[in-house]
Amino acid sequence: MKIHNKIVCLFAVFLTLTACNKSQDKKTAASDTGQISENERLQYQKWREKNAVQLDEYYQYISSKIKDAPEPYYLVYTGHSMPKKCEEFRYAIPPKEDWSHLVKSLKVIEQLREQGVFKQYRIISTYRSPEMNTCVRGAKKSKHMANFAVDFKIIDQDADLDKNHQKTTQQLCEFWRKKGPKLNMGLGIYPRHIYHIDTAAFRTWGGNYKSDSSPCMQK
């Protein structure tokens, strides 16, 4: 009987450790909510109270298409700096006809992770409503408004070191050159180690939003 109890206990420990490891693996996607300010949390809670049903439907759709889907918060969030008057538009759900657009872009990010270009990332912005785009004076044809675009920051250990950033950028550029045309991939490389990926058109750009500033175009 004692031996049986020991076996049961050991099996329980194994299950617990397995669950912990799976939880850690899940965290490799955009789940770093520790970066969210208290003010943003309160804004989100207030917004979610009015949009819970549609948000749940949107998340279920994305998670059914993506192996390691970002948390619901990041699917509706704009984290870029903005004037206070624009904060009321920080969270928004895209029209249903645009839901599939984000799936395509997230699948590109999945490919990059599977190839080891990076592991952990934090989404900074996805869908941007027309009201938000007008308020922040975004590009009139911004791919964020059609739910194609993902702005994100890599949060692997030491990812902010210039050496690792340069290596990651080189790998992203190589991926873009080889697979970008078929994927219709847009790649933006911004200051502060922020990247933009969409699947609306094959192109690249850098800090001044022009192709000649992209590291991918430099010899």
Task: Report on the architecture of this protein.
The protein has helices spanning 2-26, 38-65, 72-75, 99-114, 130-135, 162-183, and strands at 121-125, 150-154, 186-190, 194-198, 203-205. With 219 residues, the protein is an alpha+beta fold. It has one domain (31-217): Muramoyl-pentapeptide Carboxypeptidase, domain 2, CATH 3.30.1380. β3 (186-190) and β4 (194-198) form a beta hairpin. The chain is globular. It starts with a helix and ends in a 14-residue tail after the last strand.
How many distinct folded domains?
1
Molecular shape: globular
Spatial extent as radius of gyration: 20 Å
What is the CATH topology descriptor? Muramoyl-pentapeptide Carboxypeptidase, domain 2
CATH architecture classification name = 2-Layer Sandwich
Main sheet: strand order: 1-2-4-3-5
Instruction: Decide which structural class fits the backbone.
Output: alpha+beta
Distance between the termini: 72 Å
Average of pLDDT: 86
Number of strands: 5
InterPro entries: Peptidase_M15A_C, Zn_M74/Hedgehog-like
Protein name: D-Ala-D-Ala carboxypeptidase family metallohydrolase
Domain Peptidase M15A C-terminal: 82-159
Organism: Acinetobacter gerneri
Which features would summarize this protein structure in a list?
alpha+beta; single chain; Zn_M74/Hedgehog-like; 5 strands; protease; Muramoyl-pentapeptide Carboxypeptidase, domain 2
